[in-house]
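Lab notebook, bench 4. The sequencing result for the construct came back, and we need a structural model before the next group meeting so we can plan mutations. Quick request posted to the team channel:

Model the 3D structure of this chain.
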Amino acid sequence: MEIKEHEEKQEKKPVNHKKTIISVLIVLLITAVVFVVFFSFNDIHKTIDLIKTVDGIEMAKAVLCLLLYALLWPLSLCFIAKQNQFASKFMDTYMIGESEHFFNAITPFATGGQPIQIYLFTQKKIKASDSTGIIVSNFIAFLIASNIFAIASLVFYGKFSENFDSSTAWMIGLGFAMNLFTLVFVILIATCKFIRDALRKILEKLCKIKFIGKHLTKAIPAFDTYCENAQIAAKKIFSHKTSFIGAIFLKMAALLFYYAIPYFILKALGATFSFDLMPYIILASAFAITTMVWVPTPGGTGGIEFAFTTIFTASLFVEGLTNVSDIGVTGMILWRALTYYLLMILSAIAYIIYEIRVKKEKKKEQLLEEDV
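Done. Here's the predicted structure in token form:
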């Protein structure tokens, strides 16, 4: 009964636009601080000069990769929804899937996308218990796909880690461990009642500490609701193995374009290497991103810039060039501009389109009710 009441409250809870705006401003502030610190160690004038020399064709290819990634990303959610006869139009599901980037980009550990997606589905009169299952399954498909790339990148561990010293090498282990742990944890939450009950008991014991209980007690019903919904729906979805495997491949296809973006950016900046090096750079991208998944700032800001610059200044990428460091720094800035800020804007547009569609449908319903 308690779970049912909480679910009803969850379905009525709207997106807080004021908090969203504040989150975006915080992201911009963190970014500004990071870049001020970053350029205190690097020459901003050299970066500006390099940007002026960018090869337009190669940069256009990088942008195209980003667009293909953005277009492919929601298809796994749509595929799972269709295979499970989910009561949502394709375009609505697609826009909800695309909006994930925006909400993930403005929340710590990229955790904002899933709760918002559940709410957006409730606007289409779909129960949270139904939408939770497909969203969790889609998230697991992504985690499996990203872990496949991450594990494959360890083939070149020696090269990717050569610019990490003893004081920063721990980041690599932490990033990979956290990525794998997240996958195992989410699978257990979605499939194992024993784990769910054990976690609830741990949370209840923590709540006995006054300071923790003051903030955590209210979250326990939400945790129960999430787990129960995920387990009921995920059990049904995982029984359709073909659709789930298809979702994993769709996520891998999307990530392939995402991880390929640095190849074209570095070429646009004058790095000379053949197309044969593409797989190497794709795996380098996966390695860099996985290394910094533990950073709690929105979008991993601060950590991901460090990882990208450290890994992509390896001599193999820019062999024979004298401005290795400058290319690495400038490449990071252009890569971040595309994969974080431009993607966040595209995702926000998808969210706005979805909200417009919802409002139009509500107006149609009101007009029909008035006619009756």
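Residues 263 and 281 are 6 Å apart (CA to CA).
Will bring this to the meeting.
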